[in-house]
């Protein structure tokens, strides 16, 4: 059992980070879309659609951090100083984004509300961009000597990390647009569909570009993707992305048809599972890209040199937290799902949560 | 890359941690108590059906929404700062306190965040039973959170249940001993009680402010009365708890107590120095006012008991800033004494039937509104500055704990934190004061009075009056 603990925990931490990317991804995506949705009613619907859940979404980021400290302390102690600047900027941006949820409804003047809208949007941009930069800088590798970060404070800045930053912004924007297709209707949903189609093409472009560059960043990545048997194992990833892409554009068309055909639901909240399809396909892209990343990095948690076994905490620490996590993570997923279920359905203009 | 004109990266990192954690703790210190207060208000409303409790619940829920959001976003910073700025510390002690913090996230943060949405937005939509459950779970979450984080913090003061590996890392040996380390029970009770008092004094201060304008305001009377009961009963108890916590500190961190007392020499029958100035260079305290034998009596419960002095310890094991520990302690104790006094006076006025219209007393209660917050911060400065020069007491020194970062990087982030915290939390606190400035009134709207629901004319008032009557208010 003991030798499997780091593997179990690597999967759990990776899951927590992935859940964060999915869930806060669409929250941040709404902020990223704000410049294209300028009317107050539109923005109110956008913010209201995530107001009851954003806090829980962001908690996965905290679990990613605290979990790393608990079970991979060496990774926590080397990755975080290496990514000091982007992480600090991300935290500051998340402050602006987080308080704006409350403040934009408390603002008593239009001017104040405009500023809180800006804080929400700019905070979302900076947070998303910095997360993408952090990802790119991690993939490029972190210099570690004597269990400590040994690089400079600008090492994270590279054309590749800027590229991943942009890519994540576009990807988050796409998640936000697909969330809106699910949670809104009428003109707002139509606009979201329009945005989603364009952002979908852009996201696929970024996925392709980064996938082409990745193997050449480190020799190990190249070997992973272009030698047997890894090549065979990894080949379904790009194929599945293409299949999901085709399904994605079809699904957006389908939501348009349904909205045109279905009479506006006068009583209920117009909840339609199938309007969530584009959102789920995009999550599929994220999952596959994330898996591709995992295939490249495996078994390292701090590339290029520190594996999950080298970074792992003592078995006693891992086991102690795993006992709780085994019960608590399913419980958390259950009540998080329950909250989403309670607040399901379309959010309408002029309707807050009461 | 190190700019020679900047303070050292270590000092900058220490200041940044102190700044961000102090700012952060203002919000949980308030919301821990406020969540429980809201639970009590909603419970009283459900039990009695009296609408004043629902009105008060809605009034304070709006405040809670803002304060909680500010606590969340400033708290995320803390969970990353151990890694970004204290990476050597994280690598050395991650095995021991990492899982403790992991449990905080899994048992508390998710619980609070998961049910906050229902608590803020769900009363009309999901009905009373689910809503009250959510309120209780959020309140429970704040207490569970305090449990774990104070356990981790206490372990840094009184470490046990560990072994040290050849490479210097701390390894867990006994989780029970780690979590329930010697200072934890005292610190937990002392801090949670402090949080309750903090809330009570803010609620009481706001209530008094509105009673000064209209002593008939039912909501203001009710909340002021509840707050003053808390002040009268809990503030004196807190002094006893603080005394026990101090005795625990004397046992495990004697040099901290010596710094708090301003005592340099080990002595029998030590006086309690009320006012003075510790002089670190001369290794003595210039005394202005002291009470003979009182320090010995408090610390040993004997008039001629023996108490330690700072000179018992080598200079590199004494707190690095004795005057700071000395003064922060006096601020905390002074405020605590004032809070207990206000509570006792309230009992007298209540007995005379003058609680709501004695203007001098109401003014004092307004002035004492932030007393709890100030006392909490002063208490934290006392205990954390008193732990120096160690991060893990006696075992790991602060300079050995810091990240290998260049000073300009830390200076830039510190500047960012100071600017952003002042702007964002300044604005947040300004909004809180706007809310405080509005008197609680009947048919209080929910936390989002400016949300579109009102501009569009679909006012929820009928549903609320219905609910306020104590009848079924389902979705």
From TrEMBL, chain A:
<feature type="transmembrane region" description="Helical">
    <location>
        <begin position="203"/>
        <end position="222"/>
    </location>
</feature>
<feature type="transmembrane region" description="Helical">
    <location>
        <begin position="319"/>
        <end position="343"/>
    </location>
</feature>
<dbReference type="GO" id="GO:0016682">
    <property type="term" value="F:oxidoreductase activity, acting on diphenols and related substances as donors, oxygen as acceptor"/>
</dbReference>
<dbReference type="GO" id="GO:0005886">
    <property type="term" value="C:plasma membrane"/>
</dbReference>
<keyword id="KW-1003">Cell membrane</keyword>
<dbReference type="InterPro" id="IPR003317">
    <property type="entry name" value="Cyt-d_oxidase_su2"/>
</dbReference>
<keyword id="KW-0812">Transmembrane</keyword>
<dbReference type="Pfam" id="PF02322">
    <property type="entry name" value="Cyt_bd_oxida_II"/>
</dbReference>
<feature type="transmembrane region" description="Helical">
    <location>
        <begin position="122"/>
        <end position="142"/>
    </location>
</feature>
<feature type="transmembrane region" description="Helical">
    <location>
        <begin position="279"/>
        <end position="299"/>
    </location>
</feature>
<dbReference type="GO" id="GO:0009055">
    <property type="term" value="F:electron transfer activity"/>
</dbReference>
<dbReference type="GO" id="GO:0070069">
    <property type="term" value="C:cytochrome complex"/>
</dbReference>
<feature type="transmembrane region" description="Helical">
    <location>
        <begin position="83"/>
        <end position="101"/>
    </location>
</feature>
<feature type="transmembrane region" description="Helical">
    <location>
        <begin position="162"/>
        <end position="182"/>
    </location>
</feature>
<comment type="similarity">
    <text>Belongs to the cytochrome ubiquinol oxidase subunit 2 family.</text>
</comment>
<keyword id="KW-0472">Membrane</keyword>
<feature type="transmembrane region" description="Helical">
    <location>
        <begin position="6"/>
        <end position="38"/>
    </location>
</feature>
<keyword id="KW-1133">Transmembrane helix</keyword>
<protein>
    <submittedName>
        <fullName>Cytochrome d ubiquinol oxidase subunit II</fullName>
    </submittedName>
</protein>
<feature type="transmembrane region" description="Helical">
    <location>
        <begin position="228"/>
        <end position="249"/>
    </location>
</feature>
<dbReference type="GO" id="GO:0019646">
    <property type="term" value="P:aerobic electron transport chain"/>
</dbReference>
TrEMBL record, chain B:
<dbReference type="GO" id="GO:0070069">
    <property type="term" value="C:cytochrome complex"/>
</dbReference>
<keyword id="KW-0813">Transport</keyword>
<keyword id="KW-0349">Heme</keyword>
<keyword id="KW-0472">Membrane</keyword>
<feature type="transmembrane region" description="Helical">
    <location>
        <begin position="224"/>
        <end position="241"/>
    </location>
</feature>
<feature type="transmembrane region" description="Helical">
    <location>
        <begin position="100"/>
        <end position="123"/>
    </location>
</feature>
<dbReference type="GO" id="GO:0019646">
    <property type="term" value="P:aerobic electron transport chain"/>
</dbReference>
<keyword id="KW-0479">Metal-binding</keyword>
<keyword id="KW-1003">Cell membrane</keyword>
<dbReference type="GO" id="GO:0020037">
    <property type="term" value="F:heme binding"/>
</dbReference>
<keyword id="KW-0249">Electron transport</keyword>
<feature type="transmembrane region" description="Helical">
    <location>
        <begin position="25"/>
        <end position="47"/>
    </location>
</feature>
<feature type="transmembrane region" description="Helical">
    <location>
        <begin position="130"/>
        <end position="150"/>
    </location>
</feature>
<feature type="transmembrane region" description="Helical">
    <location>
        <begin position="360"/>
        <end position="381"/>
    </location>
</feature>
<keyword id="KW-0408">Iron</keyword>
<protein>
    <submittedName>
        <fullName>Cytochrome ubiquinol oxidase subunit I</fullName>
    </submittedName>
</protein>
<feature type="transmembrane region" description="Helical">
    <location>
        <begin position="324"/>
        <end position="348"/>
    </location>
</feature>
<feature type="transmembrane region" description="Helical">
    <location>
        <begin position="409"/>
        <end position="433"/>
    </location>
</feature>
<feature type="transmembrane region" description="Helical">
    <location>
        <begin position="59"/>
        <end position="80"/>
    </location>
</feature>
<dbReference type="GO" id="GO:0046872">
    <property type="term" value="F:metal ion binding"/>
</dbReference>
<dbReference type="GO" id="GO:0009055">
    <property type="term" value="F:electron transfer activity"/>
</dbReference>
<dbReference type="GO" id="GO:0005886">
    <property type="term" value="C:plasma membrane"/>
</dbReference>
